[in-house]
Write a structure and sequence with these properties.
The chain has 128 residues and is an alpha+beta fold. It is built from four helices and five strands. Helices cover 33% and strands 16% of the residues. The longest helix is centred in the C-terminal third of the chain and has 13 residues. The radius of gyration is 23 Å and the shape is elongated. The mean pLDDT is 85.
Length: 128
């Protein structure tokens, strides 16, 4: 079975085209070698899939005949991703709390006035 179809079948990606794009971008490795979307997957191979800033480490246990339900996914793959990878993702979320929210863009005129008022009230100006 093709690697893109396998990743779609075990519900690693929502659509097969997304799985294909991940392979083309080099986010999927089979036995530490970048995999093209048409590369075949065999039982016992180790996969590394980069998704959402986490390198998932999977082992192929069996090849499903078609897309499987979420409860049956563990029959076809073994997830050996270390817990530290998920802890690292939590740290990234906490570090982003200090910045503006995504999509907020540049400060508006009102934001700029609020910043100026804050600086004046806290004596940040060096004019004195």
């Amino acid at each position: 079975m093709r690697i893109d179809k396998y990743l779609w079948a075990i519900r690693m990606f929502k659509t097969r085209s997304i799985a294909t794009e991940a392979c083309k971008k080099g986010h999927v490795k089979i036995n530490n070698v970048n995999a093209k979307p048409s590369k075949d997957v065999y039982i016992g191979e180790k996969l590394i899939v980069r998704k959402n800033q986490i390198n998932y480490q999977l082992e192929v246990l069996d090849v499903p005949p078609n897309r499987v339900g979420a409860k049956l996914v563990d029959l076809y793959r073994r997830d050996t991703t270390p817990k530290e990878a998920f802890d690292h993702l939590d740290l990234l979320k906490y570090s982003k709390d200090y910045y503006r929210q995504k999509g907020a863009g540049r400060p508006s005129k009102k934001d700029r006035r609020d910043i100026d008022d804050y600086q004046e009230n806290n004596n940040f100006n060096t004019e004195n």
